[in-house]
Specification:
This protein is mainly α. The chain has helices spanning about 1-20, 30-50.
């Protein structure tokens, strides 16, 4: 789980915030919050599945 959190927050969520700061997104912080949480949870779930198998 720790690896999933580190990869999710350190890479995926940071990239999502960077991508969201774009003039094409009407609400960049809301987009970054929703997509960032989605990416972090996905990363944690995948890392837990990989370790448990």
């Amino acid at each position: 789980m720790l690896f999933g959190l580190i990869a999710g927050v350190g890479y995926l969520a940071a990239n999502t915030v960077t991508i969201a700061i774009n003039p094409n997104f009407p609400r960049p912080l809301l987009y970054a919050a929703i997509s960032g949480v989605h990416n972090v949870l996905g990363s944690v779930i995948v890392s837990v599945l990989l370790v448990s198998l």
